[in-house]
Every structure is written in structure tokens, then in C-alpha cells.
């Protein structure tokens, strides 16, 4: 899952980045409204944390620009103001959730996960498919009731594929959603992660669609 | 009731004093002048009568037997009949050496002997004025002249007198007339000065009313034109008011900005110390929570106070309830989409407005609805309607129900105390209900916590209708 953090206060941006990375997200950071609008329009994020008080271009304008361009990315708005009239404006501009500063990082992560799930049509924070049970809160995997250890990268690959269940995920798309802009991308490493995951999962859980990518079937296992 | 140190009292007392003193002096002067005038008339008449008397006097030469000295005789009596009528009010008298001629009006009375001594001091040919008691105890004024007649050794005193009872009664009645006229004049003058003081001080009264309206919050400045003497005062007052309002507005804006500016650093610190172990960590987190609460509290206060200062026409016109509730429900449906809460609504007609600024109403109902959503198991209900007869006394009753755990009746009062949080599990500053209560009361409404028919809490807010 790839998240854009649009926050101009560097300390808070760094904290958000660290917390979201720890929660298994790939994180890009934009420090002003103009960068934020550009990144959000050009890159396939799974969610955005948007501060309303951005320099350059304010958060609401950025959000309206994304929605006008047809983007449906879930957006969590972060604001110091927090009056209800502002919330109405934010929601009407296309925000999906709202969090006033100061906030608890756990709450932000939980809400962001919920936004990502909702945009995939999933209700529970625990993604279950047959014998496979992936808990997005603790980033843990259980297969047939037994815990299975996952590295951070393995978790990200599996979580993205499970959020996109029933759909073919292309190699480029998977790569885009797993790595932040500045990350070192080697598409061969994806094959390595998929191979490792397949050893930990029931056989045939991740299907290869030749020439297109990978898919986890709803009816798998 | 006029206070002892009032300007009006001072001015009216001064006016009464100078009117009384002035008119009394005028009255005394007028009476004196009148008496003088009448006396002059009398003196003039007496002079004429004296002249006539003296002209009528004849000295009979001593008779042939020489035993009798020369004696006086009045050849012609003055023509006024009052001289011949006993106690007639007019008297004449001629006193010579051993001789005494007098008018019939003296009747059987003689002039008091002391008179002779008094007019013996008169110079020859001079006329003197003497008071005396006449027949029947009439008070008399006598004019006497000492003349030397040929043929007589000793000078003769000729006197004419008149009863001054009439003069006195005339003077008295004149004084009475003048006194009552002056009294009426005094009343009129005092009334006029009362009117003058009233109209002179009226701008001050208006100013006081304007200040009352100002303090009551119905006005922001002192409006209207005042006389040239008061206008500078009004202008200065308005300048002070403007300065004051600007300062207060600045202070509130600054405190609001400060609160906002603190929020991001607070978020950073809060996140940094979340996993700080040990007692120190707990201490920092507790203090940080305190800090956050204070920031939130002052922000809300600054916002509410700034609105109280708001004099835009919109603030006076009130805010329609239904659009605000629709706004908020739209937001909450989105925010609580994951919970799949059911929002039930019975909204009032669009025209229903309450006496509260739009952003305050948003905050008030937003916080209450948010609270309901946090605690609800699955349902939140909003009802709003008008209670009481239409007109000034009508109230808009807005009820917010949830089907959550509710608040036990004995804890409801505590829930409205500032900073109280009945449950620390739900995020929030703990100011929600207390602030809502404060806001509602500031706007002349009431907030009550009750049990809801849905099983949870019912918050009933009543606000004056605009």
C-alpha cells in the first residue's frame, strides 16, 4: 500500500512517515500544496494524509483539484482548525475522513487502514480468504490457524494483492504501490517476494497470469 | 428622585435661589418707589395747601385799647371739605405766639405738645415733615413751615397733615399685588429654567441610554448627533470603544492563532513520546494531555468570544437549523461510513432559525452529533421542532438520540462539568458536553441530558427562535 503524506511541518511529516512505514505502508512525502497536487495526480496512491494548512496551495484546493481530475483515492484530512464548518467544507470537497491535530498516531493509522479497506470494499481489518487470515492491524499472517512469520516486504505484497483480490495485478502496478518514489526498485525482487510468499501460503493461493501479473482468487483455496 | 450630586439639582437650586433673591429685591424696590411716589404727591399737595394757608393768614393789628396783642386770623379757609369734616383725614394748624388756629377736622383733639418742641427746630421758611398721632389715633404725616409774618414778633408755624392710614393700606395692597405678580413670575421663571435644564441636559440622558444599549450589547457604538459641547465626548468615547474592540479582537485572534499554532507541535511531541517508557514517559504524556486540553479550551473560548463580538447582520439574523443539520449528517455519514450507522432525522421546516451564528451552531451540533456517533451501537436520531407559542418566546428544541450505553442519571450533572470525561477510552478533549452547555447558555438556551427512547443518551438543546 502506498500512501502520500502531504504535511508541511517536517517533524510531523517524518513521524507520519515512520509510523506509516512501520504499519506496512510505502510513504511519499510532499511538503507543500503544489507538490502534493502533482504527486497525487500522477502517482497511484492507495490513500492520502492531507494537511489542510499547506503552503503554496491549501489542502482544500488540492483535494478539489484531485477530485475534479477524477481521482477517487481515499483522503484523510488533517487539520489544526477543526471547526465543524471546515469539516463540512472538507467532506464536501471530497475528503473521506477527518482528524484534528493533535492526534494519536495509532488512531491515524487505524483510520487510514479503514479507508484503504473501504475503498477495496472490505469491512473488517482482518482479511480472510479460506485458510489465510491477514490481520492488517498487527501485520500478521495466520494460515490454518497457525501464525506465519512475514517480512515487511512480504507483508506489503500480500496485503496489496489481498486488497485487490479477484483482480489481476500487473507487475508495474504492484511495484508502484509497494515502493515510494525514492525507493530502489528492481522488478526482479518482486518475483523473489512472490516466490517466498508462495512457500508460506497454501498452494495456488497466488496465481500467475502469464504476461499480465498475479491474482488472488476470491474462491482460492 | 434626584440625587444630591446631580447636575440638574444643582442648576435648579441655583435658579431658584437667584430667582427668589432677584424678585424679592425687585419687589422691595417697587414698594419703596411706590411709597416714595405717593408721599411726594402728598408733600406736593401739602406744599400747595401750606402756601394757600399762609396766603390766607392775616395779622390783626393791636386794637385801640392796646391791651390785646396783635393776633392771627385766617381770612380764607382751604376749600377741601375734608378740613371741615371732623376726623376728615385732612388737617391744618397755625400756631403762633400764644395763638392756635386749627381746622374743624381736628374736632376736640389738640396736637400733641411734643410736636411744638419738634418743629421749633425748623429754620425760618423751611418746611419739615413729621409723624404724629391725630384725632381718633389716626397716624398723621404733618408738613410744617415756620414763617415770619409782618406785625408779629415771633414766627408762626403753619402745618398741614393728612391721615396716612389710606396711604399705608394702599401701599400694602400695592405690595400684595406686586408680590403676587412677582410670585407668579418666579414660578414661570423657575419653570422656564427647569425646561432649560431639562433640554440642556437631555443629550446627557440620551448619551446614558446609548451607553446602556452599548453595555446591553444592542449597539456597538454611540450613534446619533449630539450638541457641540457633547459631541467631542461622544467622539472620544467611540474612539475608546473602537480601540477597545480592536484590541479585544486582536487579543482573541492572537489567542486563537496561538492555539492553532500550538497544535502541530503538540501533535509532534505527542507522537514522539507515545512509546517513551517509564515514569518520565507517563509524566510527559499526562502533562501533554493537560496542555492539549487547555489549548482546546482556550481555542473554543476565543472562538465563542470572537463571535460574541460579531456585529455582522448575519449574526443578528440567526441561522436556519435544517441546512446545518443536513451538512453535519452528510459529514458524519462519511466519517462513520465504516460503522454503518443508521441516521434517522426529523428535520424542521427550512425557515426555522435560531439565535446563533452559523459556525457556532455547526460546532455545537457537530460536537453533540459526533459524541452520539462515537457511542452509538447502530442508530443516531436527530429531531428538531418548535416548542412554545410562535413569537418571541418560541424555542427550537433539537434532540440528539443514540442507542449507546447512555449516562446514568446520577452522572449526568458531572458530565456537564468542564473537563470531566466519564470514559477515557473514546478519544476527545473531554470538553464536549461542557462546552456545548456553555455555548447554549451564552445564547439564552438550555441543554439537558436525558435517557433516550433508543436506549442511550438524549441531549436536548433548546435555543431561542429568531
- Uncertain regions spanning at least 5 consecutive residues of chain B: 424-430
Q: Can you identify the CATH class of the largest domain in chain A?
A: Alpha Beta
Lateral arrangement of strands in the main beta sheet of chain B = 4-3-7-6-5
CATH H-level name of the largest domain in chain A... which superfamily? Response regulator
Strand order of the largest sheet of chain A: 2-1-3-4-5
List how many beta strands of chain B DSSP finds. Answer: 14
Return Rg of chain A in Å.
18 Å
Q: What does the average pLDDT of chain B come to?
A: 83
Summed up, the helix count of chain B is: 10
Number of domains of chain A: 2
pLDDT averaged residue by residue of chain A? 87
How much beta of chain B, percentage-wise? 15-25%
Q: What series of H and E elements makes up the topology of chain A? A: EHEHEHEHEHEEEEHEHHEE
Describe what this molecule looks like in 3D:
The complex is a heterodimer of chains A (221) and B (466). In chain A, a hairpin with a 2-residue loop joins strand 8 (140-143) and strand 9 (146-148). Chain A has eight helices and twelve strands. In chain A, the strands form three sheets. Chain A has a five-stranded parallel beta sheet with strand order 2-1-3-4-5, with helices on both faces. Chain A has a four-stranded antiparallel beta sheet with strand order 6-7-8-9, with helices on one face. In chain A, strands 10-12-11 form a three-stranded antiparallel beta sheet. The relative contact order of chain A is 0.12. Chain A has 221 residues and is of the alpha/beta class. With 466 residues, chain B is α+β, with helices and mostly antiparallel strands. Chain B has a five-stranded antiparallel beta sheet, sandwiched between helices. Chain B has a five-stranded mixed beta sheet with strand order 9-11-12-14-13. In chain B, strand 5 (127-133) and strand 6 (139-147) form a beta hairpin. The longest helix of chain B is centred in the middle third of the chain and has 51 residues, at 165-215. The chains are: A alpha/beta (221), B alpha+beta (466). The interface between A and B is medium-sized, with 30 and 30 residues.
Amino acid at each position: 500500500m502506498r500512501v502520500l503524506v502531504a504535511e508541511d511541518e517536517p517533524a510531523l511529516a517524518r513521524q507520519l512517515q515512520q509510523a506509516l512505514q512501520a504499519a506496512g505502508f510505502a510513504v511519499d512525502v510532499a511538503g507543500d500544496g503544489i507538490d502534493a497536487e502533482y504527486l497525487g495526480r500522477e502517482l497511484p496512491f492507495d490513500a492520502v494524509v492531507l494537511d489542510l494548512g499547506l503552503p503554496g496551495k491549501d489542502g482544500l484546493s488540492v483535494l478539489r483539484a484531485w477530485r475534479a481530475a477524477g481521482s477517487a483515492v481515499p483522503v484523510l484530512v488533517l487539520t489544526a482548525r477543526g471547526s465543524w464548518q471546515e469539516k463540512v467544507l472538507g467532506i464536501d470537497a471530497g475528503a473521506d475522513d477527518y482528524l484534528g491535530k493533535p492526534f494519536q498516531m495509532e488512531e491515524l493509522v487505524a483510520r487510514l487502514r479503514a479507508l484503504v479497506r473501504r475503498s477495496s470494499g472490505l469491512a473488517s481489518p482482518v482479511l480472510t480468504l479460506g485458510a489465510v487470515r491477514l490481520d492488517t492491524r498487527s501485520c500478521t499472517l495466520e494460515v490454518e490457524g497457525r501464525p506465519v512469520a512475514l517480512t515487511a516486504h512480504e507483508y506489503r505484497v500480500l496485503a496489496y494483492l489481498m486488497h485487490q483480490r479477484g483482480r489481476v495485478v500487473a507487475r508495474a502496478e504492484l511495484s508502484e504501490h509497494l515502493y515510494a518514489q525514492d525507493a530502489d526498485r528492481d522488478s526482479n525482487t518482486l518475483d523473489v517476494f512472490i516466490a517466498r510468499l508462495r512457500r508460506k501460503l497454501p498452494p495456488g493461493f497466488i496465481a500467475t497470469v502469464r504476461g499480465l501479473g498475479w491474482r488472488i482468487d476470491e474462491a482460492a483455496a | 428622585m434626584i440625587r444630591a450630586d446631580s447636575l440638574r439639582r444643582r442648576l435648579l437650586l441655583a435658579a431658584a435661589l437667584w430667582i427668589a433673591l432677584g424678585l424679592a429685591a425687585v419687589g422691595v424696590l417697587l414698594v419703596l418707589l411706590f411709597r416714595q411716589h405717593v408721599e411726594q404727591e402728598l408733600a406736593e399737595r401739602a406744599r400747595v395747601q401750606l402756601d394757600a394757608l399762609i396766603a390766607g393768614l392775616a395779622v390783626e393789628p393791636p386794637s385801640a385799647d392796646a391791651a390785646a396783642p396783635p393776633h392771627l386770623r385766617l381770612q380764607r379757609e382751604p376749600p377741601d371739605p375734608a378740613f371741615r369734616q371732623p376726623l376728615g383725614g385732612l388737617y391744618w394748624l397755625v400756631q403762633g405766639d400764644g395763638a392756635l388756629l386749627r381746622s374743624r377736622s381736628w374736632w376736640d383733639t389738640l396736637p400733641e405738645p411734643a410736636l411744638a418742641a419738634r418743629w421749633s427746630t425748623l429754620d425760618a421758611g423751611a418746611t419739615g415733615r413729621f409723624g404724629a398721632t391725630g384725632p381718633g389715633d389716626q397716624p398723621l404725616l404733618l408738613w410744617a413751615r415756620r414763617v415770619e409774618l409782618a406785625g408779629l414778633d415771633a414766627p408762626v408755624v403753619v402745618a398741614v397733615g393728612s391721615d396716612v392710614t389710606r396711604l399705608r393700606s394702599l401701599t400694602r395692597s400695592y405690595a400684595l399685588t406686586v408680590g403676587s405678580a412677582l410670585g407668579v413670575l418666579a414660578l414661570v421663571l423657575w419653570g422656564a429654567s427647569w425646561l432649560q435644564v431639562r433640554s440642556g441636559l437631555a443629550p446627557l440622558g440620551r448619551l446614558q441610554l446609548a451607553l446602556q444599549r452599548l453595555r446591553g450589547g444592542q449597539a456597538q457604538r454611540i450613534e446619533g448627533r449630539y450638541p457641540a459641547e457633547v459631541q467631542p465626548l461622544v467622539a472620544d468615547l467611540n474612539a475608546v470603544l473602537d480601540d477597545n474592540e480592536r484590541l479585544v479582537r486582536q487579543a482573541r485572534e492572537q489567542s486563537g492563532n496561538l492555539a492553532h499554532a500550538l497544535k502541530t507541535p503538540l501533535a509532534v511531541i505527542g507522537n514522539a513520546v507515545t512509546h517513551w517508557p517509564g515514569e518520565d514517559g507517563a509524566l510527559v504524556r499526562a502533562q501533554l494531555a493537560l496542555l492539549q486540553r487547555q489549548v482546546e479550551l482556550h481555542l473554543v473560548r476565543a472562538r465563542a468570544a470572537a463571535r460574541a463580538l460579531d456585529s455582522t447582520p448575519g449574526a443578528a439574523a440567526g441561522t436556519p437549523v435544517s441546512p446545518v443539520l443536513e451538512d453535519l449528517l452528510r459529514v458524519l455519514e462519511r466519517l462513520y461510513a465504516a460503522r454503518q450507522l443508521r441516521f434517522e432525522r426529523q428535520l424542521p421546516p427550512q425557515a426555522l432559525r435560531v439565535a446563533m451564528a452559523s459556525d457556532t451552531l455547526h460546532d455545537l451540533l457537530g460536537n453533540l452529533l459526533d459524541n452520539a456517533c462515537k457511542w452509538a451501537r447502530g442508530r443516531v436520531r436527530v429531531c428538531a421542532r418548535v416548542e412554545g407559542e410562535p413569537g418571541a418566546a418560541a424555542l427550537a428544541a433539537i434532540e440528539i438520540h443514540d442507542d449507546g450505553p447512555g449516562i446514568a442519571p446520577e452522572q449526568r450533572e458531572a458530565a456537564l462539568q468542564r473537563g470531566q470525561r466519564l470514559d477515557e477510552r473514546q478519544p476527545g478533549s473531554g470538553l464536549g458536553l461542557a462546552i456545548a452547555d456553555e455555548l447554549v447558555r451564552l445564547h439564552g438556551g438550555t441543554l439537558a441530558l436525558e435517557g433516550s427512547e433508543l436506549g442511550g443518551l438524549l441531549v436536548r438543546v433548546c435555543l431561542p427562535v429568531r
